């Protein structure tokens, strides 16, 4: 699906795609998004968004013409192309116009909480529950929590902390669900983009 950078069809000046179209952009969104491209996966911080594209700060410097799949809360994963770059900031244009109303909703049409995209990863971590220290495997992560695997039984609602790799910082939270040897751990405070990027190895 991805064929690397494509040649831009116009001068890549840092002008919003939708400003050229004369349409209004939403501003100050500040949502963490997931970016997938030919070289892997990384995180970004979306600053503004419209039906035709978005502007974000990326953890891996983009290039004009780069093609990617980008996902944010309230939208499906969308194919997009980078149209302008200014350092680690860039503007991307969606291949297909999107209904961005869901981006600003905390719940979806079924009443479920709208969730930030999750990042698959494989890493070891240390979980502290009360006086217990458990070795766990991280299966995926988002700014709001992690999915963990452990042979030990962990009760739902139990508070504790998990020592995240790369940043060596304990993220405090509680166990929110369990299923067989897997369970979810919800952070008390969402991870900032810089910390999430370092945990993912792209910051």
From TrEMBL:
InterPro entries for the chain: PilZ_domain
Organism per entry: Sphingomonas insulae
Protein name per UniProt: PilZ domain-containing protein
SUPFAM superfamilies: PilZ domain-like
Chain residue ranges for the region called Disordered: 1-22
Occurrences of domain PilZ (ranges): 19-95, 115-197
């Amino acid at each position: 699906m991805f064929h690397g950078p494509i040649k831009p069809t116009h001068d890549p000046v840092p002008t919003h795609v939708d400003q050229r179209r004369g349409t209004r952009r939403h501003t100050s969104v500040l949502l963490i998004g997931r970016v997938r491209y030919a070289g892997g996966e990384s995180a970004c911080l979306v600053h503004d968004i419209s039906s035709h594209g978005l502007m974000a700060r990326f953890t891996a410097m983009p290039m004009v013409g780069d093609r990617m799949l980008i996902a944010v809360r309230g939208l499906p994963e969308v194919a997009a192309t980078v149209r302008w770059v200014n350092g680690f900031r860039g503007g991307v244009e969606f291949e297909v116009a999107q209904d961005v109303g869901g981006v600003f909703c905390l719940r979806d049409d079924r009443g479920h909480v709208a969730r930030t995209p999750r990042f698959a990863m494989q890493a070891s971590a240390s979980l502290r529950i009360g006086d217990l220290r458990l070795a766990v495997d991280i299966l995926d992560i988002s700014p709001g929590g992690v999915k963990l695997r452990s042979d030990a039984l962990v009760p739902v609602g139990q508070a504790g902390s998990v020592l995240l790799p790369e940043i060596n910082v304990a993220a405090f939270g509680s166990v929110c669900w369990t299923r067989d040897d897997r369970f979810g751990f919800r952070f008390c405070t969402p991870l900032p983009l810089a910390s999430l990027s370092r945990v993912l190895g792209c910051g």
